[in-house]
Design brief:
The complex is a heterodimer of chains A (294) and B (255). Chain A has 294 residues and is mainly alpha-helical. Chain A is built from 12 helices and 2 strands. With 255 residues, chain B is of the alpha/beta class. Chain B has a 6-stranded mixed sheet with strand order 6-7-8-3-9-10, with helices on both faces. The longest helix of chain B is centred in the middle third of the chain and has 14 residues. Classes of the chains: A mainly alpha (294), B alpha/beta (255).
């Protein structure tokens, strides 16, 4: 390569290096400005409302009482329900697709799963109202709207995310590990349970985190089925509300800058913090496990 | 001295097809108990494919069709009542690249006994120590048993894989170019190990390295393009080959 060619090649590399750096900076800038904007607007809430009341009060009766505990508990519980129901099911589906199903089944299932990601949440809400609501209503002899129905719908919604990412993680495990296990006389199940799952654990956890992130932020489908009652759900099947559903239902009726409106911003900020801390917690637990093994 | 000439494997007229391509052509050979049998030949000659027939690892690959018989202690391994899991427990395999599981050294070795139902902690401890000693690895890892196996060197990892196999107490150990990814010193260690192991196990080793075959094996089979060209005592095969192609290969005229 001549000197001139080399120089232009280096300039080219440099150019792209800067383009990538700028892109990375812009992405972080957007994310941080969202956090800053939401927190700045949200924290103004406490000029009018007691910090203590917001975080511990259970009565939401604006503009008089601002106890946000029902929404916080609601958001966290629907998310945990979704993970508890959808996580194992999604993992099982991923194992089936990656390691059990014959190739032609996988060739049908994989695109189908990916298509599911694109279904609008309103459609899931309708499915909840028309398919699951009557069933739950019948067995609990109540209206059916509530925590459990929201959890079920979210579990179904996160399935495609959990399945496709877990499947990728399972398939990324080197074939040699699998062969090594079979060569010791392991059965397929033993190989999956004792080698494949531990080896793909970081990927499986990512799948759960993304599923969780989708569940905690979901608004429309939840608003359609949870009952939208700003109180703690008396039981697993009781109606309640989440941070997200309360935000969309109230934001139209509150003027920007009013304490009520600021409280909604602060609820968005709270949601962000809950989501972030759940993610960090999971990562921390998994990392500790991985480090212990080294 | 009386030589042990009992058969472990008897292969008769074995043909193997991969989709439409015939990868092995009417192979017949006998593998002796407690001997080291080396399979040599150029890349793509079918030696690894043949090795993988012996514990039915080819079952995991789609499109493989096999006819002919392979008898292990007079029982056809392709017979309808054969339990593949049990076959692989009796006939274990070490691969070309070390493939320790991403877990601790101890758990790697205890993997086999555990999946076969051994739960007793002190029993497992004994098996792990004994297997690591047999694989000449104990002294190097006894102080880091509970750290990840991935932190070991390549040569140590391969000996760990051998230890992991020995913990299952197989009757036959198949080795697919076990030293091709290792440095000369690690290779030497594994070759020494092979000589010890042959007192208890029947070993079949695929190797690219003719000196290695000459150094460690009792019998050698030379494969070429899916045929087994020649099979006999290693010394005879390397000093007085019967077939011209064998002579060309071992004298380095091709391969």
């Amino acid at each position: 390569m001549s000197n001139r060619q080399l120089n232009s090649q280096l300039a080219y590399d440099k150019l792209f290096r800067y383009i990538f750096i700028i892109s990375a900076v812009m992405v972080s800038f957007v994310i941080f400005s969202i956090i800053i904007f939401v927190s700045k607007q949200g924290l103004q809430t406490f000029q009018d409302i007691s910090f203590w009341e917001f975080h511990t009060g259970t009565i939401w009766n604006p503009p008089v009482q601002f106890g946000a505990v029902p929404f916080i508990v609601g958001s966290v519980s629907v998310t945990l329900l979704a993970i508890a129901l959808g996580g194992p099911l999604g993992l099982a589906g991923a194992i089936f697709m990656a390691k059990v199903a014959p190739p032609w089944v996988r060739e049908i299932m994989r695109p189908a799963t990916d298509l599911f990601v694109g279904i609008p949440s309103v459609v899931y809400g309708w499915v909840g109202l028309t398919v699951f609501l009557p069933i739950i209503s019948k067995y609990t002899s109540g209206p059916g709207f509530g925590l459990f129905l929201a959890g079920v719908i979210l579990a179904i919604m996160i399935l495609p995310t959990v399945i496709s990412i877990s499947e990728d993680a399972l398939r990324a495990v080197p074939k040699s590990l699998e062969a090594g296990s079979y060569a010791l006389g392991a059965t397929r199940w033993q190989t999956i349970y004792r080698v494949l799952i531990p080896a793909s654990l970081p990927g499986l956890v990512t799948a759960l985190i993304l599923g969780m992130a989708r569940a905690i932020g979901e608004t429309m489908a939840v608003a359609m089925v949870i009952g939208n009652s700003p109180q703690l759900a008396g039981s697993l099947f009781g109606p309640t509300a989440t941070l997200t559903t309360e935000i969309i239902l109230s934001m139209g009726q509150t003027p920007f800058g009013s304490p009520w409106n600021n409280a909604l911003f602060y609820m968005a900020f709270t949601l962000l913090m809950i989501s972030l801390s759940m993610i960090l917690l999971i990562k921390f637990v998994v990392n500790r496990r991985l480090v212990n093994e080294q | 001295m009386e030589v042990n000439v009992e058969n472990k494997f008897v292969v008769q007229n074995l043909n193997l097809f991969y989709k439409d391509v015939q990868a092995l052509r009417s192979i017949s050979m006998e593998i002796m108990k407690q001997q080291i049998t080396a399979l040599i030949g150029p890349s793509g000659c079918g030696k690894t494919t043949f090795l993988r027939v012996l514990n039915r690892m080819n079952d995991l690959i789609e499109g493989v069709r096999i006819d002919g018989t392979v008898l292990l202690d007079d029982q056809d391994i392709f017979g309808p009542d054969v339990d593949v899991v049990n076959l692989r427990k009796r006939v274990g395999m070490v691969f070309q690249r070390p493939n320790p599981f991403p877990m601790s050294v101890y758990d790697n070795v205890a993997y086999g006994p555990r999946i076969h139902g051994q739960k007793n902690k002190s029993q497992l401890d004994q098996i792990v120590e004994k297997s690591l000693r047999s694989a000449a690895l104990w002294d190097e890892v006894s102080n880091r048993l509970f750290k990840s196996a991935l932190g070991l060197s390549g040569g140590q990892q391969q000996r760990l894989c051998i230890a992991r196999l020995l913990a299952v107490e197989p009757e036959v150990v198949l080795m697919d170019e076990p030293t091709s990814a290792l440095d000369p010193l690690s290779t030497l260690k594994i070759e020494e190990l092979l000589r010890d192991l042959k007192n208890h196990y029947t070993i079949v080793i695929v190797t690219h390295n003719m000196q290695q075959a000459a150094r460690v094996s009792d019998s050698t089979a030379f494969f070429l393009n899916g045929d087994m060209v020649e099979f006999g005592p290693t010394e005879t095969l390397f000093t007085r080959p019967k077939d011209q192609r064998t002579e060309d290969y071992i004298t380095g005229r091709f391969g």
